[in-house]
Write a structure and sequence with these properties.
heterodimer, A: alpha/beta, TIM Barrel, 2 domains, 8-stranded parallel β-barrel, 21 helices, 34% helix, 24% strand, elongated, disordered N terminus, disordered C terminus, B: alpha/beta, Rossmann fold, 8-stranded mixed beta sheet, 14 strands, 26% helix, globular
C-alpha cells in the first residue's frame, strides 16, 4: 500500500441516493479491522488485518457505501485513525461514513477532509446541541448522529456512559435542530446476532427521522424486513459481525435489498372456506350475515374485511355436490372482488374450465396432480400457469424418534402416504407449469402451534413460484414468522378467522407494525364482516373432496 | 352500452360482474359490428400475446378496436388487453400488437431475485391526475398477475406505475384510451372505483384532466 499524501485525497464521493443502503461496517482498533461483541473493547475479535483490503472486498462484493468506526477514537474522545481513513477513501470508489471520537468541529472537519463523505457524531451532538447546530450549518447533508441506546435510554462515551436522556426525547431534540438522519443502535444487541431493534428503529422513523438501523443485524430475512421499510423512513442497515462470520453473505443481502426496496408487492392473507354441497361447513360464526352458510355472502364479508384472496375448498362427496359448487363460485364472483381459488375434487381439464368460467381465478389441484401430473401440464398450457395452483399435503419422515430431514407427499386429504419426496415433487410441479404452491403441513395442521417454518423455508428456497403456507396458524406471530423466516409469500388459515379469534384487519396491523409489507385494510371492517367471539375452536382437517 | 370484447382469452365474466355490481350493464360480444356500435369498449384478457392477436384478427376485431379508439369512444384494456394496445411484444419470440399506442411489451426482469410472474397486490403510484384513477385511497393497492409489462415510447401516457424491481407502467391514459396492467375486477374497492370511473366516462362524462 502506498502512502497517500493528504493533498491527493479526492473530494468525497456523493452519498448514494438509494432509498435503502446496506452498509458493511469496518471497526478500527490499533489500525486493524475488528468486531466487538456488545461494545466491549476487551472482547474485540480481529477479522482482517488490513482495513483497506477489507473495504475493497466489500466494494468488490457490491457495497454502495461503507460505515467505518474508529474504536480507539471513540474511547479516546478524538479520532485516532484518520490516516487509515485517508488510505481507505483514496483506494475506494464508494463513499464512506466515519465516526468514533468526533466530538469537536475540528475533528469533524478533519474526518471530512480525510475523505469521509459523512461524519457520524455521537456523544458530542447529544451533549451539546449548539455544537450539532454548528456542524449541520457548516456541513449540510454530511452529518449523521449516532443514537446508541440501552433500555430506551441514550448511551454515550463509547457506550460506557449513560446520558440520562430518554431516546425519543433525544431524537425530538435532534429533529428540532434540523438533523435528518440518525444511526440507531440498541447496544444490548450489537454483535450478538440476535437481530437489530426493529421496533425502536420504527419508533424513531415515525418521529420523522431517516434511520440507519444497526446493532445485531444478522439474518437475510431481517435485512429484507428493514429494506421493505424504506418508505417508512428506514434509510438503511449497518451489518457487521454477520458478514465477518459468514452468517450473511453480502451479495445475498444486497440482492434481498434490491428485491425488497424495489418492490411494493405485499404478503397475502388468505382465508380458506370449506364448501360442501354448496354450503360453508364447519366453524363459520360470523354475525350479521343473512346466511352464514352461504359461501358467496362469506366471500363478500371477507373482501370487506381486507382478505387478499380467498380459497374455496370443495369437500363435496358427490358429483351433484360439486356441480352446486360451480354455481356457488359464480355467485361468489358476483359478490366478492378479490381473487378466488377453488380446490378439491378437480380431476380433469373440463372441471378446471367450468370453474374458471364460473369466476374462479385459480384452481388448486392436489391428489389428482400427484396421480396425474399431466393435469398440471395441460392445465397450465391451456389456461396459463397463473391459474394453476398445486396444493400439496406433506408430513415429516421419521426414523423411530428421529426426523430424517425429509418430508413426504401425502394424498387424499392427508390420509394416504405416497413415499414421494416433497422437494422432488414441488420442483416437478413447478416444471410442469404450476403457478403457485400451497404447502400444507399435516404435522402442524390443527395444532395451532405455528406453521412448519423449516418446511416453508425449504420449499421457498427450492422453487421460484409463490409459496402459500398452510397448516398450524394459531397466533399473529405464527403468520409473522412464516412470512419472514419461513419465506412464504402468503399465509392461509381457516377456523382462526372464521371463529373470529383473529380479524384480518387486526392481523395486518400486527404484521405492518413489524415491518411485513401487507395491503392496508382500507376502511374499518363493516359490522357485517366483524365476527363474534368463538365458543370453541374446531381445528379439524379438511379433506380433499374425492368421491 | 358497454361492450366487453370476447375473443376467447380469459375471464370476461368477472369484469361484467363487477360492472353489474356497480349498476352498469354490459354486453359480452365477439362481433366487430357490436363493438363498433358500443358507446365504450373494454378489452380484458389473460393468456399468450400471439394467441390473443390471432384470435382478434380471425374475428375481425383488430380493426374494430383501432376504429373504436380512433373515434374517441372510451376504451379500456385490462392486463393483456393493455399490452395488445402497443406496437410489439417480446412474448412468443416477438409479436406485433394493435399499434394503437407506441411502445413495446417486455418481460419482467428475472435474476433480480423477484419472482416472475408478478402475482399479488402491489402499490399504485399515480404519476399524474387522470379521470380514470380519480378518487382512490391515498396509498392504493391493486391485484396483478403478469410476466410482461408495457414500456411506452411516450412516457407521457403513463398514468401510474408500480414498483417491482423497476417502476413499470401500471396504468396508461391517452385521451379516452386507457389501459391497466392490473385487474380492477379483482382489486376490491379500489378496483371497483376505477371501473366505476370508466363506466361513468363511458356514460357520457368528459375526461377531466387528460
Amino acid at each position: 500500500m502506498t502512502t497517500t499524501p493528504e493533498t491527493s485525497v479526492r473530494p468525497a464521493g456523493a452519498w448514494p441516493a438509494a432509498s435503502f443502503l446496506l452498509l458493511p461496517a469496518i471497526d478500527l482498533k490499533d489500525g486493524r479491522c475488528v468486531r466487538l461483541r456488545q461494545g466491549d473493547l476487551s472482547q474485540a475479535t480481529a477479522y482482517g488485518d488490513d482495513p483497506v483490503a477489507v473495504a475493497l472486498r466489500w466494494q468488490a462484493e457490491g457495497a454502495q457505501a461503507l460505515h467505518v468506526v474508529d474504536l480507539d477514537g471513540a474511547a479516546a474522545g478524538e479520532p485516532r485513525h484518520l490516516q487509515v481513513l485517508r488510505r481507505m477513501t483514496s483506494a475506494l470508489s464508494i463513499p464512506v461514513q466515519f465516526g468514533g471520537g468526533l466530538r469537536t468541529p475540528e475533528a469533524v472537519a478533519d474526518a471530512l477532509a480525510a475523505g469521509a463523505a459523512r461524519a457520524v457524531v455521537g456523544t458530542a451532538a447529544i451533549l451539546s446541541p449548539a455544537l450539532l447546530a454548528g456542524l449541520l450549518r457548516d456541513h449540510p447533508g454530511r452529518v449523521v448522529v449516532a443514537l446508541d441506546a440501552r433500555d430506551g435510554r441514550v448511551a454515550t462515551h463509547a457506550w460506557q456512559g449513560d446520558s440520562g436522556l430518554d431516546l425519543e426525547e433525544a431524537a425530538r431534540t435532534l429533529l428540532g435542530l434540523g438533523l435528518r438522519e440518525v444511526l440507531y443502535t440498541d447496544i444490548s444487541r450489537d454483535g450478538m446476532l440476535t437481530g437489530a431493534d426493529l421496533a425502536g428503529t420504527l419508533r424513531l422513523a415515525r418521529l420523522g427521522l431517516r434511520v440507519l438501523a444497526s446493532g445485531g443485524v444478522a439474518r437475510l430475512d431481517e435485512v429484507r424486513c428493514f429494506a421493505g421499510l424504506s418508505r417508512q423512513g428506514v434509510a438503511g442497515a449497518v451489518v457487521g459481525k454477520a458478514l465477518y462470520d459468514g452468517a450473511l453473505q453480502l451479495p445475498d443481502a444486497l440482492r434481498a435489498v434490491q428485491e425488497e426496496a424495489g418492490s411494493g408487492l405485499t404478503r397475502r392473507i388468505v382465508p380458506c372456506l370449506d364448501v360442501k354441497d354448496g354450503r360453508v361447513v364447519k366453524g363459520v360464526r360470523f354475525t350479521a350475515l343473512r346466511d352464514a352458510g352461504d359461501p358467496a355472502e362469506m366471500a363478500a364479508a371477507y373482501d370487506r374485511a381486507g382478505a387478499d384472496e380467498l380459497v374455496f375448498y370443495d369437500i363435496s362427496a358427490s358429483a351433484e355436490g360439486r356441480r352446486t359448487t360451480v354455481e356457488v363460485v359464480a355467485r361468489a364472483a358476483a359478490e366478492a372482488f378479490i381473487p378466488l381459488t377453488v380446490g378439491g375434487g378437480i380431476a380433469d381439464l373440463e372441471d378446471i374450465r367450468r370453474l374458471l368460467r364460473a369466476g374462479a381465478d385459480k384452481v388448486s389441484v392436489n391428489t389428482q396432480a400427484v396421480l396425474h401430473p399431466d393435469l398440471v401440464a395441460r392445465g397450465a398450457e391451456r389456461f396459463g400457469s397463473q391459474c394453476i395452483v398445486v396444493g400439496v399435503d406433506t408430513r415429516r419422515v421419521y426414523e423411530g424418534q428421529r426426523w430424517t430431514g425429509r418430508w413426504e407427499v401425502v394424498t387424499h386429504g392427508g390420509r394416504r402416504p405416497t413415499g414421494r419426496d416433497l422437494l422432488e415433487w414441488v420442483a416437478e410441479a413447478e416444471r410442469l407449469g404450476a403457478g403457485e404452491l400451497v404447502v400444507n403441513s399435516i404435522d402442524a395442521d390443527g395444532t395451532e402451534n405455528g406453521y412448519d417454518l423449516e418446511l416453508n423455508r425449504t420449499v421457498a428456497d427450492r422453487v421460484s413460484i409463490p409459496v402459500v403456507a398452510s397448516g398450524g396458524a394459531g397466533t399473529p406471530e405464527d403468520f409473522y414468522r412464516v412470512l419472514t423466516e419461513g419465506g412464504a409469500d402468503a399465509a392461509l388459515a381457516a377456523s382462526l378467522f372464521h371463529f373470529g379469534r383473529l380479524t384480518v384487519a387486526g392481523l395486518k396491523e400486527y404484521l405492518a407494525e413489524r415491518g411485513v409489507p401487507v395491503r392496508p385494510v382500507a376502511a374499518p371492517p363493516t359490522p357485517a364482516a366483524a365476527p363474534h367471539r368463538p365458543e370453541m375452536p374446531a381445528p379439524e382437517r379438511p379433506e380433499e373432496g374425492e368421491a | 352500452m358497454l361492450a366487453i370484447v370476447d375473443y376467447g382469452m380469459g375471464n370476461l365474466h368477472s369484469v361484467a360482474k363487477a360492472l353489474r355490481r356497480l349498476g352498469f350493464d354490459s354486453l359480452i360480444t365477439d362481433d366487430p359490428e357490436q363493438v363498433l356500435r358500443a358507446g365504450a369498449v373494454i378489452l380484458p384478457g389473460v393468456g399468450a400475446y400471439a394467441d390473443a392477436m390471432a384470435a382478434l384478427r380471425s374475428r375481425g376485431l383488430d380493426g374494430a378496436l383501432r376504429q373504436t379508439v380512433a373515434s374517441g369512444r372510451p376504451f379500456l384494456g385490462i392486463c393483456l388487453g393493455l399490452q395488445l394496445l402497443f406496437d410489439y411484444s417480446e412474448e412468443n419470440g416477438g409479436v406485433e400488437g394493435l399499434g394503437i399506442l407506441p411502445g413495446r411489451v417486455r418481460r419482467l426482469p428475472e435474476g433480480s431475485g423477484l419472482k416472475v410472474p408478478h402475482m399479488g397486490w402491489n402499490r399504485l403510484d399515480l404519476t399524474r391526475p387522470t379521470a380514470l384513477l380519480h378518487g382512490l385511497p391515498p396509498e392504493p393497492y391493486v391485484y396483478f398477475v403478469h410476466s410482461y409489462y408495457v414500456d411506452p415510447a411516450e412516457a407521457a401516457v403513463i398514468a401510474a406505475t408500480s414498483p417491482y424491481g423497476l417502476p413499470f407502467a401500471a396504468a396508461v391514459s391517452r385521451g379516452h384510451c386507457h389501459g391497466l396492467q392490473f385487474h380492477p375486477e379483482k382489486s376490491s374497492d379500489t378496483g371497483l372505483r376505477i371501473l366505476s370511473n370508466f363506466a361513468r366516462l363511458a356514460a357520457g362524462g368528459e375526461e377531466r384532466t387528460a
